[in-house]
Design brief:
By secondary structure, the protein is α/β, with parallel strands linked by helices. It has a single domain, classed as Rossmann fold (3-Layer(aba) Sandwich), CATH 3.40.50. It contains 5 helices and 5 strands, in the order E-H-E-H-E-H-E-H-E-H. The chain has helices at about 15-30, 40-50, 70-75, 95-105, 115-130; strands at about 10, 35-40, 55-60, 85-90, 110. Strands 2-1-3-4-5 form a 5-stranded parallel sheet, with helices on both faces. It is globular.
């Protein structure tokens, strides 16, 4: 019997449909993860401040009102306690300038949101293989 807790993944995305699709893709692929979807970056910081464990992965959208993903990434990477958390940008942007800025600010990876659930499922598989296996 495996008593280890499920790896905790946090998704921050202001788009309700995108949060739903990412959740569906993770559920379709595996029940081995606890995905927590948040609408606002402020919720992320509150959750992290209140938590005694760190998430295994943060998925972060760029295009959000009030505080965009670049600002969130910059704040996360400014606090050493969060250095070990892989942060993957998952956004509609495919601009090279966004990729470069995300990389410069400390993102571990940059992925463009695909148009279909099947393609999103492929991204979930990539995320697992790259960031979640053996963590």
């Amino acid at each position: 019997m495996n008593d280890l807790p499920k790896p905790w993944i946090i998704l921050v995305d202001d788009d309700e449909d995108d949060r739903f699709l990412v959740h569906q893709a993770f559920r379709a692929y595996s029940s081995s993860y606890l995905l927590q979807a948040l609408e606002k970056p402020e919720e992320l910081f509150q959750l992290l401040d209140d938590s005694v464990v760190l998430p295994a992965l943060i998925l972060l959208d760029l295009n959000m009102p009030l505080m965009n993903g670049f600002e969130v990434l910059k704040q996360l990477r400014s606090r050493m306690v969060y250095d070990a958390i892989p942060i993957v940008i998952l956004t509609t942007s495919d601009a090279e300038s966004d990729r470069k800025l995300a990389r410069d600010l400390g993102a571990n990876s940059f992925l463009t949101k695909p148009p279909t659930l099947g393609q999103l499922l492929e991204i979930v598989i990539q995320l697992e293989q790259r960031w979640l296996v053996n963590r």
